[in-house]
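Re: that chain you flagged

S.,

Sorry for the slow reply, it's been a week of failed gels. I finally had a moment to sit down with the sequence you sent. For the record, here it is as I used it:
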Amino acid sequence: MNIPNLESLAPHLVALSEKAGARIRHIYTEVFEVIEKGDGSPVTQADHESHRLLKEGLEKLTPSIPVISEEDEASWTIKSSFYWLIDPLDGTKAFIQKSGEFCINIALIKDNYPIFGLIHIPLSGETFYGYEKKAFCKSKGKTTSLQTRPFPSQGMTLLLGGYGKKFQRQEELFLKSYPIAKIERIRSAIKFCRIASGKADLYLRFMPCSEWDTAAGHALVEAAGGIMTQLDGQPFHYGKPALINEEFVVFGRKP
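Prediction finished late last night. Pasting the C-alpha cells below so you have them in one place:
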C-alpha cells in the first residue's frame, strides 16, 4: 500500500479534527449522559459522535486505509501494516469533570510505527500535528512551526499524568539521572503538545495505557525534534497484544 502524500493530506485532517472538536465542544456545554463501559471506564455522547465523524472522514479521505478506534471494539483485531489509530476523545474523565484537559488523537501507523500524528484540543481550538520531521500548530487560523527546546540549564520541566503518587518510588529512581526544576500534572495527550512546542522537556509514565493514547503524540514529538522510547531506551512500537502500552519516557531532545 502506498503512503499518501502527508503534506497534502494534513490540511484535510486538521479540518476533520476541528469538525469533531466543534461537536465535542457543543456537547461539553450541555447536560450529557455518562455511560460505563465493560472495563469500567466512562464514555459519553461526545466520544461516540467524535468517533463517527472521524471514522467517516478518514474513510472518505483514504478509503484503502483501515481505522482502529477506541470506540469501535470490532476494529481492535484489525491486522494491517498500515492503519489509522484514533482516540476520538482522549481524557473522557477530564471532559466529564469539566477540567478542559481533553483532546482528539489521530495517528497513521506504518509497520508498527507512527508516521503522522495530530492532536486537536477542542476548548482552545489548537491543532498540533507532525510528520516527516516537520511539526506545526494551527491556532486562530494561523499555522506556525514547532520545535522542541534544548534542556534548560536551570533544570527540566517534567510532565506526569493524573494518577497521583502511585508510582512515586519508580519516578524518583528513574529521575535521579536528570535535573528536574518543575513538575506539572496534566491529563490526556496534551502533554505531548507541551513538549513538542518547547514548553516542557520530559514526560514519564509507569501506568499502562492504550496505544491510541500515545501514537499521535509520539509522532508529533519526534517530528518536532524529540524522542519517545521504552524506559531502557529501546524503540517504542505499536501493534502490541491488546493494543496496550507499558512504561515509556518522552524527551524533548535526545538525552
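What I noticed first: Residues 6-145 form a domain with the Fructose-1,6-Bisphosphatase; Chain A, domain 1 fold (CATH 3.30.540.10).

Talk soon,
D.
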